[in-house]
Amino acid sequence: MQNSEAPPTPPTPPTPDIARREGPERRRETLERLDRERDIWLSTSHPRHGPHQVPLWFWWDGRALWMCTGANSATARNALQEPRVRLALPDTADVVLVQGEAECFPARDVPRDAADGFAGKFGWDPRKEEGPFLYLRVTPGTVRAWRGEHELTGRVLMRDGAWVA
C-alpha cells in the first residue's frame, strides 16, 4: 500500500521589504488609485439572504464612487433595502477598503455629470441601453489602506467622512 499523502508544501519565499508609507503618502496613492483603476468589489447585504459581492466598473468623481448595475439585480435590490456597503479594490497586496452608504439613482434620474463621467471612462452609457439600470453613488465614510502587516497601524485614512491622514 502506497502512502497517499502529498509531499509537504515548500515554505513561501519572503516578500521583499516594502517601505512603510505615512498617512499623507497613503492618502495620495489611494486617491490616485481611485482615479486610475477600473474595477472594484461591491459588497451588499440582504436581511434574509445575507452578503452579496460583485465586481463592478466604477468612476471616482473626486468625492464619491459611481457604479452602475441592472435595476433588477440582487445588488440593486440589496442597496435599495440596505444602503450600507463596502467596497474593495482588487489588489490584496495593496489594500484599499471603503465603507459608505449607497445612494441609488435610476438611469433617467442620475445627475448628468456623473453619468457622463462614467460613460466617458468606459465608453459605455447605460442611459442608452434598453434594459433598466441603476446607478449607485457611494460617498466614503471610512477609507482604509495598507500594504502588508507593517502598515496595519495607521491604516484608517478617513473616518466619519473626514480625512484623518
TrEMBL record:
Database matches in Pfam families: PNPOx_N
Oxidoreductase recorded as keyword: yes
Keywords carried by this UniProt record: Oxidoreductase
Chain segments annotated as coiled-coil in the UniProt record: none
Taxonomic superkingdom: Bacteria
Pro residues bias: start-end ranges: 7-16
Domain called Pyridoxamine 5'-phosphate oxidase N-terminal: residue spans: 31-146
Chain intervals with Basic and acidic residues compositional bias: 18-32
Segments for region (Disordered): 1-32
The name this protein goes by in its record: Pyridoxamine 5'-phosphate oxidase family protein
Native organism: Streptomyces durmitorensis
Organismal lineage: Bacteria, Bacillati, Actinomycetota, Actinomycetes, Kitasatosporales
